[in-house]
UniProtKB/TrEMBL annotation:
Annotated protein name in UniProt: Type IV pilin biogenesis protein
The UniProt record lists the keyword Transmembrane: yes
Membrane topology: Multi-pass membrane protein
InterPro entries to which the protein is assigned, alphabetical: GspF/PilC, T2SS_GspF/T4SS_PilC_CS, T2SS_GspF_dom, T2SS_GspF_sf
Stored Pfam families: T2SSF
TM stretches of this protein: 166-191, 211-233, 368-388
Protein's UniProt keywords contain GTP-binding: no
Family: Belongs to the GSP F family.
Broad class of the protein's primary localization: membrane
Location of the protein in the cell: Cell inner membrane
PROSITE patterns, alphabetized: T2SP_F
Residue ranges of every copy of the Type II secretion system protein GspF domain listed in the record: 63-185, 267-387
Species of the source: Lelliottia aquatilis
Keywords: Cell inner membrane, Cell membrane, Membrane, Transmembrane, Transmembrane helix, Transport
Length: 398
């Protein structure tokens, strides 16, 4: 729960043994009540700050370990307590211990997870509820951990491919500004002492340097204005729809983003189908797990059309976010009764394609960015040193 706080405690057991640990509670009174319920006599209780945010990799790693413990025959509550004892992070120790206590008190695992929406996405709750109903909780935990790890790796791959050119361009801009504001003025002062005309390229660069030097503060705010504007509009629904549509139309970035989103959607749909969850509920889980209001609205519209009795293939086709291959395979699976297999094939296809596009983008951008950066910096260097070849004539004439 968002109102919970992390508390560090020291207490005595009924046998007089000193113990210490952490727990989650809304306030100090609730923390004391929880310790008393566990037959502990509190000695000290202090609130601590959670310095690290909840990381997705920690979440799916816990479910992977939980699946292994359940397959070994351990009970769910005991497995959670074991994971709490061995986890290195205090906040996860307290959370896992809290989940184990909820299970010991008779709460269902899915309901216990539902109390922590900032940690466990809706897909986790749906999968655990399916595992409880079918009696295959360890299989659901294992499949969920594999799916989340694959999606995390894919997301990191796409972000790395898109982040690299931005870093290179930012470094090029910094180098150019440093040369224009620090180096070129010194060369200009030297050239002014000689009564000789400067080459045209040098005059253009010097004029650009003077303009930047005189309006450096205004240019700085002009460069920051789009960032502040996008930061202020990022929560506005209309701007989110527009920006997400615009990204999909970009030549290279659009292919990467579309592939990553479709891989996530079809992976969730395949996972829920294999677990025995109805397709409508699978669409709802995909809608809740995918990021972006544009994608969520498209999936919501498809889910509403399926709920009204429309075929799945035509409902997804009207969403206008799926490729023709997706529509064709979904219709084939719908007619042949092998929808779960087709969804798994689509998830695997888009996952591989996105990885390949990310690798191709990195290999293509590296030489391209080097050429662009070399041209920019080379032009500045040539413009600075070109008048030196004329200085000998100017000095002899003097």
């Amino acid at each position: 729960m968002a109102a919970n706080h992390l508390w560090r405690w020291r207490a005595l057991t009924l046998q007089g043994e000193l113990q210490q640990g952490t727990l989650w509670a809304v306030n100090r009174e609730a923390a004391f009540s929880q310790l008393s319920y566990e037959a502990l006599c509190p000695l000290s209780l202090s609130r601590t700050l959670m310095l690290k945010k909840w990381q997705p990799q920690h979440c799916y790693e816990i479910f992977r370990q939980l699946a292994a413990l359940l397959q070994a025959g351990l009970t769910l509550a005991y497995s959670l307590q074991m994971l709490a004892d061995q986890h290195p992070m205090k906040q996860w120790q307290a959370l896992l211990a809290r989940l184990a206590n909820d299970l010991s008190a008779g709460c269902a695992f899915s309901e216990a997870l539902k109390k922590w929406p900032e940690v466990f996405p809706p897909l986790y709750i749906s999968m655990m509820k399916t595992g409880e109903l079918t009696g295959k909780l360890e299989e659901c935990c294992s499949q969920l951990a594999q799916q989340q790890k694959s999606q995390q790796l894919l997301s990191m791959k796409v972000k790395k491919a898109l982040r690299y050119p931005l870093i290179i361009l930012a470094l090029a801009v910094v180098v150019v500004l440093a040369m224009v504001t620090l180096v070129l003025p010194e060369f200009a002062a030297i050239y002014q002492t000689f009564n000789t005309p400067l080459p045209l390229l040098t005059q253009l660069v010097m004029g650009f340097a003077d303009f930047v030097h005189q309006h450096i503060i205004a240019l700085f705010f002009v460069m920051l204005f789009p960032a502040f504007m996008m930061r202020g509009l990022r929560y506005h629904p209309r701007w989110q729809r527009f920006s997400q549509r615009l990204v999909l139309r970009l030549p290279v970035m659009g292919v990467l983003v579309r592939g990553q989103k479709l891989s996530q959607i079809f992976t969730v749909l395949s996972l829920t189908q294999q677990a025995g969850i109805a397709f409508l509920q699978g669409l709802e889980s995909a809608e809740e797990s995918v990021a972006g209001i544009f994608w969520q609205e498209a999936l919501r519209g498809a889910r509403e059309r399926v709920a009204q009795g429309a075929p799945i293939g035509s409902s997804l086709s009207e969403a206008r976010i799926f490729t023709p291959l997706c529509i064709q395979l979904v219709r084939t699976g719908e007619v042949s009764g092998s929808l779960d297999t087709m969804l798994a094939n689509l998830a695997h296809h888009h996952n591989e394609q996105t990885f390949q596009h990310a690798d191709n983008l990195a290999s293509l951008l590296e030489p391209l960015l080097l050429i662009v950066t070399g041209i920019i910096i080379g032009t500045l260097v040539v413009a600075m040193y070109l008048p030196i070849f004329h200085l000998g004539d100017a000095m002899s004439a003097g």
